């Protein structure tokens, strides 16, 4: 198609391959920092930050050095596996596996309807292409039911943002005069470029401030100007009080709101009902301190806020997502440098219904936000006796048995399905429950990218070539979905040949032919990603075939934001502009800017009908007015502690790395508790404690830790995975958090779990 086709993607032809630095990214969190790695054979021997990377500019944290534990784990799958009737497993070849899986899925679709099949997952912290290709398999089967991890964390936020902005917003912490971290510990969890560097910069700059709202004195709190240790689960009271102070003290941006807001008076009236003093008491922060922070926010040129799991997985979660946004909207901290902003997307992670109402799940009745079934209702949707119940599942790049509430219930749900298939690199807790398991090539063995691009005014993406050939027996997901879609009979070579011929003639001819074919043939359009892979993909450099689907994304971005794509350095008009952007993406393992806005264009990205911010959400204003009657304490005599189940720490990375040897500290993932609580229980660091919740019971190693508030205890996420060292028997290290959680402990609107606020009991284990 272009001269790109002649360029090899794998740079292994140098004299001594061990001295070559290969450009890729770290896949252990959503930051996807650019790194360069050295290889010895298939082993990643050295890792360093890539200074030329368009977003991370050389930054990494300690975890990137441990990437070989992901790439070369003993848990890697190397052949498709099929479950036998007696529960054992047998290896099958790819052709057999694809044929049998396609048959089984087709049978469910024909007998029960494609809408009774669920697709779960579709990407993790470093890989989103499987979701793009998975959509072809979904369409080929008529699958409409789907979900992923976002529906256990970010759907409450999406519910609010859809109504307020019609789109996603993000902060600009590199520039914000005041940065607020709400239930978020960016020191460990990251979430924006060069996180620790930026946090230290803010801390060192007397003219900027950092506010951290967290019951634990986190590493981030240690750098903050204002650490507000609200009692766990009381953030709604604190945020309501901050908003009320702004209103009471006349600190709201009245003129800005008149021009840019809707529902302002109604919202202000609701904040006027807030009993500030009593709410201060209920969250445990002095009223004077709350006023001081509110005034600091009001005095700032720009405020950026990052909310995360500390509030998204705690009581009043959707309400808090709303209240924090109400605060910065009342301050007018939107669409200026350092403030909150909407942004472009290579492919949006969320879809936002403009209507302000969501469909509900036909089995469980939960709100389907952004097209996603609430994670807490997936197992119920299988175990129900409703004729609408889920009968089969495709699970890809996700480990829901481990990551969703009530692991045992999810296990039972999977075993009661008519059919299930898991696509993963490892034999996970979820794979163990499936009927078939398909081994994917790792994220270093195929082209990959993510859609975690959320920056403004310049937004960037990075497509990274493979640095290794797929491990024997594995296939990249684009190839897996292509084979499935063909086995399902959705496309064949007769459909593809004319497009292949067009692709050989060049990008313009291909674009025209593809659009014409997609318009003429809806089935072909529906499985478009696989069609692109099979046609355009064949003209891309070796190893880059799987990037073909991004051609369509690039075209969409160029269509929506032509001026901003050109401002980002790509030339052309119409489809040619999309082609040039795509070529730049393919050719740059350091990543590229894909849109560059003028600051003054920020409001153009709002997606509300009148391009104003809708401040008044009736359900949440009702919830705000009802707050004085709400509980602040969910503990009981039986369960006197609040357990935060799933804390991000130095060596946690969801369940991406299974080998416990990767953890250089905190080997078993200790249960942290305050010195006061430890003394009360007679427990010391290293002792075993039994932690019991309404959902289950487990034994953890204790760590007495003076950053914890009395009554608040925490265990990390990503522990409790089974792993067999080479030649050994699988061993379990640490506590799997969701053996302790239940699906009914959740937000009333989004259904998201309250994993950071589980009533618990602790007992020393003496034997
Ligand atoms: N190291 C590492 N980084 C990661 C990940 C990882 O596994 N490991 N995972 C990534 C993913 S998928 C995500 S979603 C993010 C999550 O990132 P974060 O949300 O930052 O991570 P957590 O540690 O789960 O929770 C953040 C904080 O919430 C606090 N908290 C607990 N209860 C409350 C409460 O009631 N109110 C308030 N205000 N705070 C509370 C905890 O003390 C904790 O410091 O991290 C990403 N980054
Ligand atoms: N109690 C509790 N539970 C939680 C949390 C918590 O704080 N507390 N946090 C939650 C959050 S925020 C999240 S995001 C979820 C995360 O949970 P999940 O969405 O289940 O994701 P991961 O643990 O990241 O698992 C990713 C899977 O992808 C596989 N994988 C890696 N690379 C590839 C690849 O290239 N292809 C394929 N096909 N598979 C691959 C890995 O082996 C792993 O099985 O956990 C949630 N669960
Ligand atoms: S874990 Fe996250 S912040 Fe750390 S190097 Fe990897 S991508 Fe970057
Ligand atoms: Mo997450």
Question: Can you offer a commentary on this structure?
Answer:
The chain is of the alpha/beta class. The protein folds into 4 domains: 10-72 and 445-474 and 492-596, no CATH class; 81-154 and 349-439, Rossmann fold (3-Layer(aba) Sandwich); 172-339 and 616-627, Dimethylsulfoxide Reductase, domain 2 (3-Layer(aba) Sandwich); 634-764, Barwin-like endoglucanases. It is built from 26 helices and 28 strands. The strands form 8 sheets. A 7-stranded mixed β-sheet has the order 5-4-17-16-15-6-7, with helices on one face. A 6-stranded mixed β-sheet has the order 22-24-23-28-21-25. Helix 4 runs parallel beside helix 13 and helix 22 (549-560) packs across helix 24 (574-587). The termini are far apart. The structure holds ligand MGD (2 copies), iron/sulfur cluster and molybdenum atom. One ligand MGD binds at residues 124-125, 127, 130, 149, 152-153, 309, 396-400, 403, 423-426, 428, 440, 442-443, 477, 645-646, 654-656, 717, 737-738, 741, 755.
At a glance:
By secondary structure, this protein is an alpha/beta fold.
Topology of this protein?
Blueprint: E1 22-25, E2 34-40, E3 43-49, H1 68-71, E4 81-83, E5 89-91, H2 94-112, E6 117-121, H3 129-141, E7 145-147, H4 155-164, E8 169-170, E9 178-182, H5 186-189, H6 195-204, E10 209-213, E11 226-228, H7 235-248, H8 254-260, E12 261-262, H9 264-272, H10 276-283, H11 287-299, E13 303-307, H12 309-312, H13 317-330, E14 341-342, H14 378-383, E15 392-396, H15 400-403, H16 407-415, E16 419-424, E17 436-439, E18 458-461, H17 477-487, H18 493-505, H19 507-520, H20 522-526, H21 528-534, H22 549-560, H23 562-567, H24 574-587, E19 592-596, E20 613-614, H25 618-626, E21 641-647, E22 671-673, H26 675-681, E23 688-693, E24 696-704, E25 712-716, E26 721-723, E27 731-733, E28 758-764
Parallel strand pairs: 6-7, 6-15, 9-10, 9-13, 10-11, 12-20, 15-16, 16-17, 21-25, 22-24
Antiparallel strand pairs: 1-2, 2-3, 4-5, 4-17, 8-14, 18-19, 21-28, 23-24, 23-28, 26-27
Helix pairs in contact: 2-17, 3-17, 4-13, 7-10, 7-11, 7-13, 17-21, 18-19, 22-24
């Amino acid at each position: 198609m272009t001269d790109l086709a002649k360029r090899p993607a794998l740079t292994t032809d140098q004299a001594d391959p061990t001295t070559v630095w290969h450009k890729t990214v770290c896949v252990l969190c959503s930051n996807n920092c650019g790194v360069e790695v050295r290889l010895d054979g298939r082993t990643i021997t050295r890792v360093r930050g890539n200074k030329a990377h368009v977003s991370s500019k050389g930054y990494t944290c300690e975890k990137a050095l441990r990437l070989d534990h992901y790439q070369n784990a003993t848990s890697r799958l190397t052949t498709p596996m099929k479950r036998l009737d007696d529960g054992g497993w047998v290896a099958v070849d790819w052709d057999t596996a694809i044929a049998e899986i396609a048959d089984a899925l087709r049978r469910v679709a024909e007998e029960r309807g494609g809408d009774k099949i669920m697709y779960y997952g579709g990407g993790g912290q470093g890989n989103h292409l499987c979701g793009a290709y998975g959509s072809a398999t979904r369409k080929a089967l008529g699958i409409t039911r789907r979900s992923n991890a976002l529906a256990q964390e970010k759907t409450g936020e999406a519910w609010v943002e859809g109504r307020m902005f019609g789109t996603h917003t993000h902060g600009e912490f590199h520039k914000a005069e005041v940065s607020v971290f709400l239930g978020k510990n960016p020191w460990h969890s990251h979430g924006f470029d060069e996180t620790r560097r930026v946090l230290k910069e803010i801390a060192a700059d007397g003219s900027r401030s950092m506010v951290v709202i967290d019951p634990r004195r986190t590493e981030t709190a240690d750098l903050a100007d204002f650490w507000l240790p609200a009692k766990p689960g009381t953030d709604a009271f604190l945020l309501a009080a901050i908003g009320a102070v702004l209103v009471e003290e006349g600190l709201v941006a009245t003129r800005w709101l008149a021009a840019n807001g809707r529902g302002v008076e109604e919202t202000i009236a609701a904040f006027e009902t807030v009993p500030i003093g009593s709410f201060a008491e209920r969250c445990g922060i002095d009223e004077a301190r709350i006023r001081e922070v509110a005034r600091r926010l009001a005095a700032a040129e720009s405020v950026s806020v990052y909310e995360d799991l500390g509030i998204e997985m705690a009581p009043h979660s959707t309400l808090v997502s709303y209240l924090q946004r109400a605060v910065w909207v009342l301050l007018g901290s939107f669409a200026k440098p350092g403030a909150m902003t909407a942004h472009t997307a290579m492919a949006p992670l969320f879809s936002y219904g403009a209507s302000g109402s969501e469909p509900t799940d036909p089995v469980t009745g939960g709100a389907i936000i952004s097209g996603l079934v609430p994670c807490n209702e997936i197992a119920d949707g299988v175990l129900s006796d409703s004729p609408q119940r889920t009968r089969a599942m495709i699970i890809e790049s996700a480990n829901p048995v481990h990551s969703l509430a009530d692991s045992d219930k999810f296990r039972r749900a999977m075993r009661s399905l008519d059919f299930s298939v898991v696509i993963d690199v490892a034999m996970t807790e979820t794979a163990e429950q499936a009927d078939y398991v398909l081994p994917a090539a790792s994220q270093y063995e195929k082209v990959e990218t993510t859609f975690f691009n959320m920056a403004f005014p310049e937004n960037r993406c990075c497509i990274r070539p493979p640095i290794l050939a797929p491990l024997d027996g594995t296939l990249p997901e684009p190839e897996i979905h292509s084979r499935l879609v063909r086995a399902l009979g959705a496309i064949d070579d007769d459909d593809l040949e004319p497009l292949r011929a067009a692709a050989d003639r060049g990008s313009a001819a291909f674009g025209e032919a593809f659009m014409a074919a997609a318009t003429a043939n809806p089935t072909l359009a529906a499985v478009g990603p696989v069609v692109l892979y099979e046609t355009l993909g064949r003209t891309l450099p070796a190893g880059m075939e799987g990037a073909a689907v991004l051609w369509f994304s690039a075209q969409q971005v160029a269509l929506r934001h032509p001026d901003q794509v050109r401002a980002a350095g790509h030339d052309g008009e119409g489809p040619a502009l999309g082609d040039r952007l795509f070529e730049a993406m393919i050719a740059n393992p350091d990543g590229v800017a894909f849109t560059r806005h003028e600051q003054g264009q920020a409001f153009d990205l709002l997606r509300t009908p009148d391009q104003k911010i809708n401040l008044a959400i009736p359900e949440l204003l009702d919830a705000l007015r009802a707050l004085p009657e709400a509980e602040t304490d969910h503990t009981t005599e039986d369960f006197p502690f609040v357990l935060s189940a799933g804390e991000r720490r130095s060596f946690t990375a969801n369940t991406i790395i299974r080998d416990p040897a990767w953890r250089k500290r905190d080997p078993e993932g200790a249960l942290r508790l305050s010195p006061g609580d430890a003394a009360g229980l007679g427990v010391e660091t290293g002792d075993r404690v039994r932690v019991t919740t309404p959902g289950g019971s487990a034994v953890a190693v204790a760590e007495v830790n003076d950053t914890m508030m009395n009554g608040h205890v925490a265990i990390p996420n990503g522990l409790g995975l089974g792993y067999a060292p080479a030649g050994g028997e699988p061993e379990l290290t640490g506590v799997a958090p969701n053996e302790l959680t239940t699906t009914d402990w959740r937000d009333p609107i989004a259904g998201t779990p309250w994993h950071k606020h589980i009533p618990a009991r602790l007992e020393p284990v003496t034997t």
